[in-house]
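Practice problem: predict the structure.
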Amino acid sequence: MGCSIQENNQGQISPQTEKNELEINSSTNTGNQTAPPIDQGNVKNLTTNNTTPPTTEEIKSEQVPRDSTRVKNSIEKKPPKREKIDVKGLYLNRTSIREENIQRYIDIVKNTKLNAVVIDIKDDYGKLTYDSNVTLANQIGSDSNPATKDLKKLIQRLKAEGIYTIARIVVFKDPYLAAHQDDVAIKRKDGTVWQDAAGMKWVDPYQKKVWNYITAIAQEAAANGFDEIQYDYIRFPENAKQVDKQVAFANPTNVSKAENILAFLQSSKKKLNDYPVYVSADVFGLTTTATDDMGIGQIWENIAPNVDYISPMTYPSHYAKGTYGISNPDDFPYDIMFRAAQDAKQRNQNLKEAGQTPAIIRPWIQDFDYLRNYTATDVKNQIKALEEQGITQYLIWNAANSYTVEAFK
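Answer:
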């Protein structure tokens, strides 16, 4: 999920310490599936230095050039997707999916109201959690020391228990790829590799070589049987005003950040059409209320019509004081979640009235301590707020996967 952000009085977004969270400023108004096999001969060409960003004309016409990394469809009839369900899921990191740990989380899901898991496939550090056949991953070693030796077997095990499976792929925050292929890293204006406030390197969202790498990993996850591909960090770095003064993106045609994020999403999703998977995106909770892209390229009206599910990261502890007129949002998880969900629903309604089909809203819920200890009641109140808005799906976030199980029973 994205790092938390808070916009100061000058409109500058600054990083917070807890990753995968959001703080909204009060000044903002407010069965196994059969998939086509990966053509390794084509995947190997992923290392081709194809770094020219799409032009504005290409984006507007949705004709971003295809390259040889596309996985070819080897069957005539597209396999069916799993029937949609009301997903209620937990996030699982690389440690939790190891053979010695996974049964614990299967038991949690089976003994609660939950029915899904979000599994790290490509994590916040750019490391894959499985043994990949994508050539670039093999070349740079991003799949070294995998958490699971047999991804397909793991997915089959989860599905045998009736668990819906979501592959989380961190997109443009990739310090590993940036370190091993610095030609695709975000660069400072002096040509050196840029790092964020936490010392993390990012890849340049304008680099099509990165698009190809991400999409190949998504196709591989789909081929291994996942029900859904979830894109996280599908954005530019936060603190945009400062970052933009420091860096020079590979963007000679001056494509806007929002157009570029949309183009990547459309391109990648199209290349997943041959697989029986849904596609989802994690976005900052601020996208439910912001009228611009916040400098990170995320606009609700761009993303929601181009994915099946959209997951705003609306964690109450990271909303600024005064948001929605609430003096201390951390103490009112029900109220914050209710208002955030209300905004998201309105954005979707506007899209429907414009003749578009928006994604199903599936927010992330806070189940971690940050400013104070979070209780089962706090978690339940967030779920209650969503249900009262008619939102029946949610995902639970705790980076350490230490969940308040009683909240889901």
